[in-house]
Amino acid sequence: MTHGIHSQTDIGKMREENQDSMATRVLADDFSLLVVADGMGGYAGGSVASSLVTSTMLSELDRVAVEVFRESPQLYLRAAILAANAAVNREAREKHELRDMGSTVVASVVIGDHAYVAHVGDSRAYLLREGVIRQITEDHTVVQDLVRAGYVSPEDAVYHPSSGILTRCLGQMDMPDPVFAEVIQLLPGDRILLCSDGLSGMLEDDEIAEVVFHETAGDATAILVGMANEAGGFDNITVVLFAYGDLPEGARSWPLVVGTPLYRESLSIQPIDEPTTPFKFATRDKAKLHDTMTLSTAGREERADQERMAWLWPILIGLAIISIGLFVWYFVGTGS
Asked: Are 259 and 269 in contact (CB under 8 A)?
């Protein structure tokens, strides 16, 4: 059974630079590493952050012997992500112009027929199996918290003004511990897809599934990027696709189903009688370009300091004027 990794990244149609970064590595015949990072933080900052994430993770994992990594993949993947977070924080402290930068990350280690997935932020991982596409990761966003709490419906989530605000990312918090999905036991023909929100925000899940199940793995990534650009290309687009064996000849006739996300239930796939309605851009041509933002303790403290200074400055200026007046009155009055 043959395996393969296929990847592509694109600047999209609206951005001035590509702030996504990706990395793939084949550590052994049955051992692969996949990483996608989506940077933020203004011009240059985002690309620096995402590049730091992927390069630091690769550097950290290069120090681990393959057989040692194989024995504890989650332990070393977690350590690599935390090292990447530290690297982004360190660079942001040293360079004032990069102080607001950060990055998402979604990473997968595939060892034999087991896939381990970890993420921070809203870059996603999907499992595609026998015509069913299921989201593995849950977005770390304000709007997803509202959906989980029942305040916002999934259908309205994509239009919500908080859809671009992250609650967790690398570089904006001291210890953004990555979230691990349940270990996935792969079946022949399975696909693991990692992507930035430049893909998942522009295409519906069933559109992604149609391409992956109907095209060769080598063609699928390029087609997905092209479709995201045709839908508007509002953000950078990055796709990494891991193919666990070849699709059977009858794959093109599989009915496509958007399954329940894996983070909501056990790994056993239970296709529903009717396909679900995926989150949809009903009017993609009217969709607005928005920059990803983060909520962070540091940001709140900085705003609080600014608010305190806004009240303090008038008082200081008033005291200075009174002091000058008293000084002039004393010396001028004494002299006369």
From this structure: yes
Q: What are the φ/ψ torsions at residue 289 (nearest 5 degrees)?
A: -75, 130
Q: Domain residues for 334?
A: 299-336
Q: Residue 151's domain is classified under what CATH number?
A: 3.60.40.10
Q: What pLDDT does 1 receive? A: 64
Domain count, the chain: 2
Q: Does residue 268 sit in the same domain as residue 303? A: no
CB 248 within 8 A of CB 29: no
What pTM does this model have?
0.81
Same domain, 256 and 304: no
> What is the rounded end-to-end Cα distance, in angstroms, of the chain?
103
Report the Cα 203 to chain-centroid distance in Å.
Answer: 16
Q: Is 199 helix (H, G, I), strand (E, B) or coil?
A: helix
pLDDT digits (tens, 9 = 90+) for 57-70: 999 999 999 999 99
DSSP string, 113-164: TEEEEEEESS-EEEEEETTEEEE-S---BHHHHHHHHTSS-HHHHTTSTTTT
Distance between CA 49 and CA 39 in Å, rounded? 6
Do both 251 and 319 map to the same domain? no
